[in-house]
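Backbone geometry:

***
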Amino acid sequence: MSESSSIGAGRVARFMTVSLGRELGVLLALSVMFPFMIHIIPVPEDSQWGPRLLPMFYAPLLAALCGRVRSAAAVALLAPWLNWMLTSHPSPPLAVVTMVELSGFVFVVRVLLAGVGPRWYLAAPAYLAAMAAAVVVTGLFPALIGGRSALAWAAQGIVTGEPGIVILLVINWLALRFYPPGAAPA
């Protein structure tokens, strides 16, 4: 190899490695699959399972708990838009709100992991903090939620999402139980 072709080769930071690409592909597939599976469950005309079961949060939670910060952030930013392109849900304004929620959720899970360590309950305060971040954004841009009150919208979202919060806590507990942070991969 010539000297000129190796100049700076050791200093190039690679964002997308094959391993990260594969991991991101799996997480994005899960982030589409979970909501899709939820939407095929038959429900009464006026009911929706997505806001109740919060399937968009499952893959980012798993990535954040497993220490995959870049993948968790990428899924939080891309999953709402990928779901919109494939299923037309959520609508573009709600995709922006969902992106804010997921980003805040991942951030708070990571902060809590660093602050209090791995605990089974991290998903609940992270979800509530994500809703607080969404309240700030929807308070500044009420058109994202159809002009409704941001606080009323968030309160309704939290009450509606209670079953999903329980599912997030179960996923949180299972992930930490079977894949504790710092454990050697099998």
In short: Confidence is low (pLDDT under 50) at residues 1-6. The radius of gyration is 18 Å. The chain has one domain: 17-178.
